[in-house]
Structure formats: structure tokens, C-alpha cells
Design goal:
Blueprint: E1 4-5, H1 10-15, H2 18-30, E2 33-35, E3 47-52, E4 57-62, E5 65-75, E6 84-92, H3 99-102, H4 105-117, E7 119-121, E8 125-126, H5 128-142, E9 148-153, E10 160-163, H6 167-178, E11 189-194
Parallel strand pairs: 1-8, 6-7
Antiparallel strand pairs: 2-3, 3-4, 4-5, 5-6, 7-11, 9-10, 9-11
Organism: Buttiauxella izardii
Protein name: Phage protein
Length: about 200
């Protein structure tokens, strides 16, 4: 479910500490990971993009330190019989020496998820940075005719999909509807970008 706003996250605080970052990077690699080729992205010298063997976590690593990390979870309750994915634990370092390597990476990874799963939805809780990232991706998708952008409201019986027609409608109506701090409501509202045409979603 999605997107209750939160201030910060434990993984963010831990990965920002170099010693803990190194420990968590070692733990990630020890569980099994392989080099991952992301279309459109070439890691700079010294960097490697690694995907967990189960395909549920990806990290950009240099010298045993994670510069970018994302976990992926999947489900099937948005569009019947279609698997969707959600990015969780999205993190990037703020250290300046890594920024050139991170340029465009999050957007390219998001695009790869859409190509791979065809449906991607917001995660249950987001920081302000997470919200801004999604707002950019939603506006990009609204402008692209190959995608549909919707909101799924789990507070309605069986869930309810509503098509978002324009960026103006998203900003004025659906963004404040989806994001907020009510723990009973906002974790039940998902924003959806899909390459699969939903079956007559209500407008």
C-alpha cells in the first residue's frame, strides 16, 4: 500500500555512516550477487552494478561502499493476474565524489522496472525525496502515450483504480489525495504507472 509520508528511514541513516555502509555492503554481497547490465547505463571505472541472485535488490558499489541501493517487491492485486513491482529502500549517497556515477541512474533503473514488470506502484512509506522522485516519474509518464497513470484506492471495496488524465489533474487533485500522514488512509493509496491498459478504470 502507499504513500504515507515519513521523515527519514533507518537504512538511510545507516548507509550514510561509512563503517555501517561497508558492513551492509559486505552482507549484501555475501548472500550472493552478480554483475547487472542496466540498459543505457555504463558504470564508471571502479564501480560495479550488482543484482542479488533473487533479483530483489540492486546496488552500485565502489571499493566495498554502496553508492546507490534499491530493493524490489512484487504483488498481483492492482491489475488481475498481472505482477506489479514496488521500489522500496531506495537510497543514494549524498557524498560529492559519487554524484557523477549516480547521474541518471535512478531514472534508468525505474525505466527498466517498467519494461520488465510493466506495472510499477509506489511504496508504502516515503520521505519527501521519494515523493519528489515519483512526482517526476508520474509527470513523465502522463506525457508518454505508451503509459497509463492511475491511483489505486485500497480504502474502497476491492480497491478502485482511477485514471489520471493530465499533470494539472495530478497536481491539483491526486497528489494531495495520495500523500499525507494519516496512517489509516494514506498507506492504502497507491500511485500506478502501467504499460498494461487497465480494464476500464473509473475516471
Amino acid at each position: 500500500m502507499t504513500p504515507k509520508l515519513i521523515s527519514d528511514t533507518e537504512f538511510n541513516r545507516l548507509l550514510n555512516i561509512s563503517e555501517r555502509n561497508h558492513e551492509r555492503t559486505e552482507a549484501f554481497l555475501s548472500k550472493g550477487a552478480s554483475l547487472f547490465s542496466l540498459p543505457g547505463y555504463v558504470p564508471p571505472p571502479g564501480y560495479c552494478l550488482m543484482m542479488a541472485l533473487d533479483g530483489k535488490q540492486c546496488r552500485l558499489i565502489k571499493d566495498g561502499i554502496t553508492a546507490y541501493a534499491v530493493k524490489i517487491i512484487t504483488g498481483k492485486y492492482i491489475v488481475p493476474e498481472k505482477t506489479h513491482c514496488t521500489q522500496v529502500m531506495v537510497w543514494r549517497t549524498f557524498l560529492p565524489e559519487y554524484q557523477a556515477a549516480l547521474h541518471g541512474l535512478a531514472k534508468l533503473f525505474f525505466a527498466w522496472l517498467l519494461e520488465t514488470y510493466e506495472i510499477i506502484v509506489t511504496d508504502q512509506e516515503q520521505t519527501g525525496d521519494g515523493r519528489r522522485f515519483w512526482e517526476y516519474r508520474i509527470n513523465d509518464a502522463i506525457a508518454d502515450p505508451q503509459y497509463e497513470v492511475m491511483i489505486w484506492d485500497g480504502t474502497k471495496e476491492k480497491g478502485e483504480l482511477s485514471l489520471i488524465q493530465s499533470s494539472e489533474e495530478f497536481v491539483s487533485k491526486w497528489s494531495p489525495y495520495a500523500w499525507g500522514i494519516n496512517p489509516e488512509i494514506h498507506p492504502q493509496r497507491l500511485l500506478v504507472i502501467s504499460k498494461v491498459k487497465a480494464a476500464n478504470p473509473p475516471e
